[in-house]
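Per your request, structure below.
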């Protein structure tokens, strides 16, 4: 997947998975993220799915003017919902600018994921961290103190899934995960169980997390989906 200047590779993958999952749920799968969003129609469909309401009718013409009208309408909807848009204009999306298209979708993801927990992002992280620590307190040696390095060994993901009451502690043996699996195997186990049994999209792969500097926002987004 295209590696851009403003987003790390894990975040780029998250953006594509997010769009694919949303639009497939709306029976409108996408093949290529950048070309699919250029006419603005898919972008408006994405917002309809997120907001749960129909927006103004989309312009079906194929000219640049029609595409700009659709994209600008989508940007207006985002602004009304207080989504932070930094130096992103309709022409950027219509022209297929990779960097700004990814930045736009990432802003949408971060905005609505944060809203699900709290309107204040700093407070959201504290709430989420408190929930994680409470849920994993009985799992040694798990000690989550941040949304970066605390997740690198795969134990925290597995403990969170195994422990929380609405999930399924019967899906795997915690001792096997903690004592017999490699880091890569642990991460694979957590992401596969969440995808196959909890219907949570696999937004991350082991190599995204098994690193000295995991991407904080990618981990935040994934953990938020478990909240």
């Amino acid at each position: 997947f295209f590696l851009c200047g403003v987003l790390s590779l894990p975040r780029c993958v998250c953006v594509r998975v997010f769009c694919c999952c949303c639009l497939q749920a709306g029976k409108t799968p996408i093949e290529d993220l950048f070309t699919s969003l250029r006419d603005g129609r898919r972008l408006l469909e994405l917002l309809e799915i997120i907001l749960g309401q129909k927006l103004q009718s989309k312009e079906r013409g194929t000219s640049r003017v029609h595409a700009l009208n659709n994209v600008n309408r989508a940007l207006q909807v985002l602004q009304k919902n207080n989504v932070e848009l930094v130096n992103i204009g309709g022409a950027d999306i219509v022209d297929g600018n990779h960097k700004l298209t990814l930045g736009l979708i990432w802003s949408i993801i971060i905005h609505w994921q944060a809203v699900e927990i709290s309107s204040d992002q700093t407070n959201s992280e504290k709430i989420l961290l408190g929930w994680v620590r409470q849920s994993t307190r009985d799992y040694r040696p798990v000690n989550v103190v941040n949304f970066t390095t605390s997740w690198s060994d795969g134990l925290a993901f597995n403990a969170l899934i195994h422990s929380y009451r609405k999930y399924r502690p019967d899906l795997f043996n915690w001792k096997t995960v903690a004592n017999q699996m490699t880091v890569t195997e642990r991460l694979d186990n957590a992401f596969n169980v969440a995808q196959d049994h909890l219907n949570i999209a696999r937004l991350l792969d082991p190599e995204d997390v098994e690193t000295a500097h995991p991407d904080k926002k990618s981990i935040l987004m994934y953990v938020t989906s478990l909240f």
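DSSP finds twelve helices and no strands in the chain.

Regards,
D.
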